[in-house]
């Protein structure tokens, strides 16, 4: 398929800047449409005006329509040991061997964890440890058998631009393959 572009060339000292202007504008429009759709799904916009005072300013209000946190899915129950072996806890292990846990992910192969790209852009440091098999974070007597894995590589979606939420996805490569046990 052939696509026509308007090319603009700018002289910048000894360098030339060549832009496919129509393509860039189309990308911007797609982003604007995506942002508008997301905004409509999360926020409710209303306007208030006066019938008695026609020259009164119109007041625009935006209300966050996201529901509050619910600890369980409707009709759900607490997880049991070894029920979700693919659930991953992400953290940073410092030089004192202390781990600061701050994000989550999902094991998608024997050596890869899918997570949100924003997890890799925090003040907590780099994600360098993944824990699998955890049930209760603060309980060592819950019949779970968690195992920690190092992280050798983190790949962020090329379209992700922190802190914007679009393309907020990343892939972590574990330092060794995961062996899933029989339950």
TrEMBL record:
InterPro entries: CLIP_Serine_Protease, Peptidase_S1_PA, Peptidase_S1_PA_chymotrypsin, Peptidase_S1A, Trypsin_dom, TRYPSIN_HIS. Belongs to the peptidase S1 family. CLIP subfamily. This is GL24252. Keywords: Calcium, Disulfide bond, Glycoprotein, Metal-binding, Signal, Zymogen. Residues 73-183 form the Peptidase S1 domain. SUPFAM superfamilies: Trypsin-like serine proteases (SSF50494). It holds the Pfam family Trypsin. Residues 1-26 form the signal peptide. GO terms for molecular function: metal ion binding; serine-type endopeptidase activity. Gene3D superfamilies: Trypsin-like serine proteases. One of its GO terms (biological process) is proteolysis.
